[in-house]
Amino acid sequence: MALPPRLTDEQRLKALEKAAASRKRRAYIKSELKSGSLVIDNILELSKTDEAVANMRVRELLESLSGVGKVRALTLMERLEISPTRRVKGLGRHQITQIRNEFMKSSHAISPGKLLVLSGPGGVGKSTVAKKLREVGDFWVSVSYTTRQPRSNEVNGRDYHFVSHEVFQTMINNGEFLEWAEFAGNRYGTTQDKVEQALLLGKNVLLEIEIAGAKQVKAHLPQSILVFLEPPSWEELVSRLEGRGTDDEVRRAQRLELAQAELDAASSFDVVLVNDEVEGVVQKLIELAS
Ligand code: ADP
Ligand code: 5GP
């Protein structure tokens, strides 16, 4: 028999961290199943992209469903000829259909919500549009994590979750982010759990993030719609950044330099909208999600 690979201390630590993150994720999924927030169809869908879910044992999954105990789970698995050690990723197409038929008859199948990702150069008006959309549209707007210091008008938990570099790094190691990126010397990231849950519950979701992060989201969730917000003109962008008054001269110059590169990314987005007037942009986003 081949010997197990010898791991360095660092590799062992990484493997332990990954296993802990998977356990945490499985526990979360099971509690959502128990409470009925997620149904079996959501899990089968999720297993296509989520390693921790794909590696769950089928028995564990069935036992977590409300109203299904150990006995019913085992009886069902015997009837469907699923071995007791089978993992979700090992289910055949026929078995998936049978499990779906068994449980979806009584539970409400929810059609997943749309995921809109709003990007564009700093100062173009992304947060202004997101704020308005939260007020008038039926959208769940994700609150990001960042290592940036709060601005005077920002509230922790509403505008961002403000965390230290150490906390952010631990979240990366635990695989908590759907995407994250570095921007102007700070890190910004979107956690996976809440976004997935909102989508599976049929809510439309808006992420307001920079361009590298938007591309990561598209790679993980190809159904997402990437929207690029453009300023009516370069002069208007400069004037909005100055008018916002949140950055000193050095940071403003830094953000404008970044903005020049960011504007070039528009062509790789699904939709480009010019932010000449906030209400008009918000209306178009609502239309994109309907
Ligand atoms: P971003 O989130 O993209 O960095 P902000 O939402 O902070 O940009 O907007 C930058 C500034 O531009 C703010 O002062 C905001 O009030 C202003 N602004 C946003 N959208 C418009 C618009 N359509 N017309 C005029 N000013 C706008
Ligand atoms: P600000 O510091 O002006 O709030 O944000 C700087 C940039 O980071 C903006 O382009 C904003 O859209 C982006 N951003 C905010 N949250 C996230 C996030 O969770 N992920 C990524 N990739 N970018 C984000």
From TrEMBL:
<dbReference type="InterPro" id="IPR027417">
    <property type="entry name" value="P-loop_NTPase"/>
</dbReference>
<dbReference type="GO" id="GO:0005524">
    <property type="term" value="F:ATP binding"/>
</dbReference>
<dbReference type="InterPro" id="IPR020590">
    <property type="entry name" value="Guanylate_kinase_CS"/>
</dbReference>
<dbReference type="InterPro" id="IPR017665">
    <property type="entry name" value="Guanylate_kinase"/>
</dbReference>
<comment type="similarity">
    <text>Belongs to the guanylate kinase family.</text>
</comment>
<dbReference type="InterPro" id="IPR010979">
    <property type="entry name" value="Ribosomal_uS13-like_H2TH"/>
</dbReference>
<dbReference type="InterPro" id="IPR047806">
    <property type="entry name" value="IHF_actinobact"/>
</dbReference>
<dbReference type="InterPro" id="IPR008145">
    <property type="entry name" value="GK/Ca_channel_bsu"/>
</dbReference>
<dbReference type="GO" id="GO:0004385">
    <property type="term" value="F:GMP kinase activity"/>
</dbReference>
<dbReference type="InterPro" id="IPR008144">
    <property type="entry name" value="Guanylate_kin-like_dom"/>
</dbReference>
<keyword id="KW-0067">ATP-binding</keyword>
<dbReference type="Pfam" id="PF22525">
    <property type="entry name" value="H2TH_5"/>
</dbReference>
<keyword id="KW-0808">Transferase</keyword>
<protein>
    <recommendedName>
        <fullName>guanylate kinase</fullName>
        <ecNumber>2.7.4.8</ecNumber>
    </recommendedName>
</protein>
<feature type="domain" description="Guanylate kinase-like">
    <location>
        <begin position="113"/>
        <end position="290"/>
    </location>
</feature>
<keyword id="KW-0547">Nucleotide-binding</keyword>
<keyword id="KW-0418">Kinase</keyword>
<dbReference type="Pfam" id="PF00625">
    <property type="entry name" value="Guanylate_kin"/>
</dbReference>
<dbReference type="GO" id="GO:0003676">
    <property type="term" value="F:nucleic acid binding"/>
</dbReference>
<dbReference type="InterPro" id="IPR055201">
    <property type="entry name" value="IHF-like_H2TH"/>
</dbReference>
<dbReference type="GO" id="GO:0005829">
    <property type="term" value="C:cytosol"/>
</dbReference>
